[in-house]
Amino acid sequence: MNVSLFNRLMLAPEAYNFFQFCHLLESHQVNLRVPDLQSDSELTLQFCAWPYLGFPASELKQSLPESVYDYKLPVVFTTFMGLIGTDGVMPNWLIAESAEKKDGMENLLAFLDMFHHRMMTMFYQIWKRFHYDFQFRPDASDRLSRALLTLIHGKSKLDIDPCYYLGVIKNLNKKNKNIFGLKEIVQYVIPAAREVVIDEFIAVKYAVPQRSIGTGITFDTAVLGRFLYDANSRIRISVKLNDYAILSLLYENQPVRTVLKTLVRKYVGCALDVELVAKISADLLPQAQLNGSNPQIIKAGVTAGQPEAGALFSIFLGVL
Known about the structure:
Protein name: Type VI secretion system baseplate subunit TssG
Strand order of the largest sheet: 4-7-8-9
Helix content: 25-40%
Number of strands: 9
Organism: Snodgrassella alvi
Pfam family, one: T6SS_TssG
Shape: elongated
Structural class: alpha/beta
């Protein structure tokens, strides 16, 4: 245990949020689940209810000599969810007498503090269970982070850095998937994008190789003609860029495209195809150099020539 950190936290608990305070203690092997008031261990502490009725300025209070009882464990007072104090649920006379610290109240308050400590630690454990991002370890170094990230990704090995999952984990866990959540994911991966537009119901043309009744693409009925248009299984992501250098990062097998593809596919699932289109002004494209010593490679997919000033090119970057 980091004794210096523990002492610093105990001297100024008011500077921390309750959940942050518990997380720092737990991350340094301080056991918060042991409400044993008779223990001599240095790896635990005691949460007690702040008995006074003044307006609390923080969620935690330092244990002063005049306010703490004869406990063997270090004490930290909490100003919320207590049996006594400003949020107390006990009878008013008991709350008033505990605030006045009348004779004979020490034993009763010590008895109530055992339940208070258990209630606070359970409250923290419940909060931590629903805030996975607060428990994340860098590079998913612990077993819990690796297991949950693998569960979200659906594979035993992650294709991208787990930090990217952490940034959009709230969007990935939503039950109602919509274009607004998809737009947030794209803006997270490409923060330099000036504008992100999501178009739905993109028609896709499929060739029907055989036109005999009952063969080819039928969808429970016969298809007449040589082609079939499907507008229910594809959406389009249009990204407006301010820099040509960003465009080169969106090509196939580039790291940014890999991250974008993985997160988008995880968000939309297997029911939809997603095509990516980049829009960039002609003024931002590099000028063609025919006599340069190093031949210039332009993979923007636009025709050579002198475009009009301010013209906007739409570059199809394939299906994610």
